[in-house]
TrEMBL record:
It comes from the Eukaryota. The keyword Oxidoreductase does not apply. Residues 1-19 form the signal peptide. The lineage of its organism: Eukaryota, Fungi, Fungi incertae sedis, Mucoromycota, Glomeromycotina. Residues 163-330 form the TLDc domain. InterPro entries: TLDc_dom. The keyword Signal applies. This is TLDc domain-containing protein. Keywords: Signal.
Length: 335
């Protein structure tokens, strides 16, 4: 997997796409960096944070109510981050000493209060939380056990509200979902490192697929580029351009929310490029391996450029793909 870290066998592009559809929600301009972009980043950046020691960035994400991930997985990532900050801990917590647990507890002292423990499933509590029980306050653990036995039993611990998911694609509604009743699922159509990086492979696997998300890891940088295409790409005889004002493109970089960009389609502009010699392309603004096997961004049909890097004489910022994935978003209830 393109962003797989030695700390854990995780699939960051898939975790990113789990948060991605939130970007279709109109941003809240009263809260600084727009909610859409913050949600878009979600745990994609936790996976980057895992390899460093950016506690502040991790805490800022844990405070959010709209991370589209089950709380049990959030717990797992936090534990892995904490362990990474304490080199030399045994791999199996059953072999840990009280000093080992105390070291982890001290490292995570600012993160542990932000976990929504009472939203973690009983199975995850037993399998993933109980092995690290010594890092939790005794009263909290007692209340967790009470809730597993009887969800309606009163407890003294502070119960944080469940995280929510704004409905991503349905712009006509303002429905909120929790991670447990999210109506969308994501089907991996293509992975470059698995299937290949040619235009033929792209068209064979993704032709006429609607509601798709492109995720690209740029080679040699910490950039993630991508976009959402609700109408899909349709293989032409040669090439054509299609308009769709629901498309958007984005970039994530430098491990910080503030340096991320979401760019929506301009109205009445050609936002999708179909070319049988090219991979997935959002007009000229994000082109994947064209007929010369070049990938680049050239500001044209979207509100703003998604890369802040030098351009060539054609106003293009070229890049190479380390990996890329395309997911299709499906409504579970429509199947």
């Amino acid at each position: 997997m393109v962003l797989a870290l030695s700390l854990a066998a995780v699939e960051p592009l898939q975790q990113l796409v789990l948060a991605l559809p939130l970007a279709a929600v109109e941003p809240n301009t009263t809260t600084g960096p727009c909610t859409a972009i913050c949600s878009l980043i979600g745990f994609a950046y936790i996976l980057l944070i895992l390899s460093f020691s950016q506690e502040n960035a991790l805490i800022s994400l844990l405070k959010r109510d709209d991370l589209q991930m089950e709380e049990g997985k959030i717990w797992n990532y936090v534990i892995k981050w904490g362990i990474a900050q304490n080199q030399g801990l045994p791999s199996d917590p059953e072999d840990w000493t009280l000093e080992n647990f105390q070291a982890l507890k001290t490292t995570l002292q600012n993160c542990l209060p932000l976990i929504r423990y009472f939203q973690i499933s009983g199975n995850d509590i037993v399998d993933n939380v109980q092995p690290y029980q010594p890092i939790l306050e005794k009263n909290l653990w007692k209340d967790i056990m009470k809730r597993i036995a009887d969800p309606n039993r009163p407890i003294s611990s502070i119960v944080l509200p469940p995280r929510i998911i704004l409905t991503p694609i349905d712009e006509k509604t303002t429905t909120y979902y929790s991670t447990r009743n999210n109506p969308y699922k994501f089907r991996l159509l293509l992975r470059g490192s698995r299937d290949g990086f040619t235009a033929d492979i792209f068209w064979n696997l993704c032709d006429k697929k609607e509601n798709v998300v492109l995720i690209i890891k740029v080679k040699g940088t910490d950039e993630i580029l991508g976009g959402y295409n609700p109408i899909g790409w349709e293989k032409p005889i040669t090439f054509n351009y299609i308009s769709c004002d629901k498309c958007f493109i984005f970039s994530l970089r430098n491990g910080t929310i503030q340096n991320s960009i979401l760019s929506r389609a301009k109205s009445q502009h050609k936002t999708i490029k179909n070319n049988f010699l090219c991979g997935p392309s959002f007009h000229y603004d994000l082109v994947s391996f064209n007929h010369k096997n070049k990938s680049y961004c050239q500001h044209a049909s979207y509100e703003k450029p998604i890369r802040n890097v030098p351009v060539d004489k054609h106003n293009r910022s070229c890049f190479s793909l380390e990996d890329y994935e395309i997911f299709q978003i499906n409504n579970k209830h429509a199947e």
